Amino acid sequence: MALATQPRILKGEEKLHVAGVPYADADGGATMLDFWKWAFSDVLLDTTRGTFAEFLVARLIGEGGHPRPTTTEYDIQGKDGRRIEVKSTAYRQRWLSATDRNTVPTFSGFRRYRYVDRRPVGTRDYLADIYVLALLAETDQGLVDPTDLAQWEFFVLSKDELQKASGDKGAISLTRVRAAVKSCRAQELASRYRSTILPGRT
Fold this sequence. Notes:
By secondary structure, the protein is of the alpha+beta class. The chain has five helices and twelve strands.
């Protein structure tokens, strides 16, 4: 499997190899699908859920045909040029027991550094045009399933709307998000995204 200089979508059938010769380990030959299953099967983990939320948003708004941007300044590059940042939170976490109380959902990490020659420059800032806040809303530990789109709620805000709603802080509570914008379901996300008007655009 030769990896291109630029990221590309892999199919999962690509095999581990040694200079082009498939590598046979104790279980046979490993593929990229084997790696994905090993590393990312537990979608309820905080780190995996965040990446999964980015994937969901990209697919739901029609931007899932290319890999994640290599930049750390935003998560999705829209065909229309808009930069999209996705943040996720949940009531239930992998580390909670069935009897533990739900966590209080909060979205954070909106400000990022710009990078020049792989080095951060300036101060952290809002670098995306659109922010999609994704809430895994199931409250029952026995029922929570990130692959069930019915369990997700999405909030779409422009950069200016997010700054205003959060008081220009680095985090925002679910209560304040709900006060600022109406949520939508997976089936409505694409139209909500398209209808979000940015300052200076019509």
